[in-house]
Structures are given as C-alpha cells and as structure tokens.
C-alpha cells in the first residue's frame, strides 16, 4: 500500500496499517511531518522504521500520477501500489467563494479579527473555512473549537449592540499517533512553530488520547452549561498580534475577490 502525504493523517494511516502487518510505503511529497521540529521528526521516523514503513522523502517525492497499479513520482520513479491512499491535505468547501464574498487563495472566507466577513457584517466564519485578517490559523480542531466559540460570542455581541472582541488564539502543539501504543506530542511556540521539545512513545500516545477525550468533554460541558467554554478568552495570542503588525509581503495579495 502507498500512502501519499506525510502530514498527521498520512503518518497516522501508515503507522496503523503497518502495525496490522501491511507492507506500507509513505510518500512525503517533501519532508516527513512538515510541521515537526527535526528532533520530533527523527522520533517519528524511528517509530515508522521500527514498524517497517518505507518512507520516501525529498523534493522529487511528489506524486504526479496515480495509475491502476502504481504511483508515479516527479523524478519518473514508479512505486508499485495496489492500494494508493491519498492524504495530501484537505480543502475548503467552495460556498464562500461561490457566494461572491472575499476569500483567500484556498477559498477560506476573509474576515476581520472578530471573524466577521470583510464584505458583510451579517456573515461570520469559524474553523478551517475562515481566514481572519488573511492570516489563517493552522487547520486543526485546536483552532476550530476556540474559533467556533469566538464566532458565537461575536454574534451575541452584535445582537446585544456591543462591540465584539477580537481573536486571542494560541497554539500549543501538534500530536500524531503512531499505531495503538505510541505517538508524538510536538510542542510549538506561540507563533505555532514547532520547538525542540516533544514527547514520544507511550506517553506521547497517552497525551494525544487525553486531547481527544478532552474535546468530547468540552462539548458535554458546554451542553450542560452554555457559555462555560472559555479557551478563546484565555490570555495569549502574542505571536498572532506580532504577525499582524509585521509588514506583510503578500498578505491580501494571496486573497482574491471571486465574482
Ligand atoms: C484524519 C484527520 C485527523 C485529524 N486530527 C486532528 C488532530 O489530532 N488535532 C487537530 O487539532 N486537528 C485534527 N484534524 C483537523 C480537524 O479535524 C479539523 O481542522 C476540524 O475538524 C475543523 O473543523 P471545522 O468545523 O472547521 O470543519 P469540519 O470539521 O470539516 O466541519 C465542516 C462541516 O461543514 C459541513 N458543510 C460543508 N459544506 C456545507 C454546506 N454547504 N452546507 C452545510 N454544511 C456544510 C461539513 O459536512 C462538515 O460537517 C484532523 C483532520 C483529519 C482529516
């Protein structure tokens, strides 16, 4: 089997399949785990090697074609593969673009820092499909949950005739499970750049699992006590403020108006 794409989805898929005894090739299209710090990456590579996953890295490891029984790479190599699995990133529904609202190059709705559309204050966006200030956050539930709460607060503030608050988003980590009993918990800084610190092995897997169960708990708590969720109100987001203030070479140039 060939897994195409070595972000968290492809890496997790490759590890799970290998653990079930399948012969797996992971085609990275660049580096393994683009977000990871090189030490975290080394830890992931070690675990994949132990599971017998063949990792194909490098600029030439981009898949240019998928045929019935192989995947073809940019350098012309063909990797025999009965089952290619495509995990080369997820996209955004085209609803915002089709609506004629301003979107970025990926089709995410352009908003201000209150998550309100730059074109129409009756439209609010959150999650993977939002690009606040043209500086979208990493597509993740880590961002989607506080963004959802922020969007709800924005709507409530507008209904109350109050000025909505702005984003206050910080990231902490990226976690990837590597089969049933191992994982890596890669810490990041406030600008969402991976740092040297990561936790691997069984503890890494346990930390990822804690994050997953935490999401369900957040939802249950919110159902019992609406408005109780407060991660979006926590102090932080200094990295984002700095990025917003920094001169941007390409900022709204990446954005386009779809008519
Ligand atoms: C395999 C996998 C593993 C992941 N693991 C992690 C992880 O460990 N940690 C992490 O932080 N993130 C993880 N993510 C990312 C995370 O799941 C997403 O970033 C998050 O779900 C984004 O939330 P969202 O609500 O913006 O979008 P989604 O969860 O994609 O929800 C969008 C919803 O909108 C609906 N929809 C779309 N178009 C329309 C329409 N026209 N009308 C009505 N409804 C519509 C869709 O059906 C869907 O229900 C993972 C993603 C994948 C694919």
Descriptive account of the structure:
By secondary structure, the chain is of the alpha/beta class. The protein is 32% helix and 19% strand. β4 and β5 (70-73) form a beta hairpin. The N and C termini lie far apart (42 Å). The model is unreliable at 251-259 (pLDDT under 50). The structure holds flavin-adenine dinucleotide. Flavin-adenine dinucleotide binds next to α1 and α4. Residues 8-9, 90, 93, 95, 127-129, 139-142, 144, 175 line the site of flavin-adenine dinucleotide.
Brief sketch in words of this structure:
With 259 residues, the chain is α/β, with parallel strands linked by helices. The protein is built from 7 helices and 14 strands.
N-to-C series of helices and strands? EHEHEEEEEHEEEHEEEHHHE
Beta strand %: 15-25%
Helix content: 25-40%
Model regions low in confidence, pLDDT < 50 over at least 5 residues: 251-259
What would you call the shape?
A: globular
Structural class: alpha/beta
For the biggest sheet, the summary is:
4 strands, parallel
Estimated radius of gyration: 20 Å
Mean pLDDT: 90
Total of DSSP H or I helical runs spanning 4+ residues: 7
Strand order of the largest sheet: 3-2-1-7
First-to-last CA distance = 42 Å
| Total beta strands | 14
List bound small molecules: flavin-adenine dinucleotide
Write the layout of secondary structure elements.
Layout lengths: L1 E3 L3 H12 L5 E3 L10 H13 L3 E3 L6 E4 L3 E4 L4 E3 L3 E3 L8 H4 L3 E2 L5 E3 L18 E3 L8 H19 L13 E5 L5 E6 L5 E6 L1 H24 L13 H8 L5 H4 L1 E2 L2
Parallel strand pairs: 1-2, 1-7, 2-3, 9-10
Antiparallel strand pairs: 4-5, 5-6, 8-14, 11-12, 12-13
Flavin-adenine dinucleotide binds next to helix 1 and helix 4.
